Amino acid sequence: MEINYLLFVVGITFIIIIGFFFFANAMRYKKLRELDDIEVEKINSMSKDQLIRGLFHEWRSDFTHAINADKAMKEKIKKEFNVDV
Length: 85
Fold this sequence. Notes:
By secondary structure, this protein is mostly helical. The chain has helices at residues 2-44, 48-62, 67-81. The relative contact order is 0.07.
């Protein structure tokens, strides 16, 4: 009888712990979706100038570029999009 009770308590505890992990994971996923929606809204509300500047700065931070490559990219963006970066 005591073994059955012990197994019951261990089983219930296990179910509660697993339930907590599923709940915590669902909450994390919900928060990530909310943050993603905010980021999408931010991107959609950007002006052309902000978007091109952001892309340039991201390109610039991804690699170590020579000064000539930076200068060439700035000139190309100015010529193509009429945006100073």
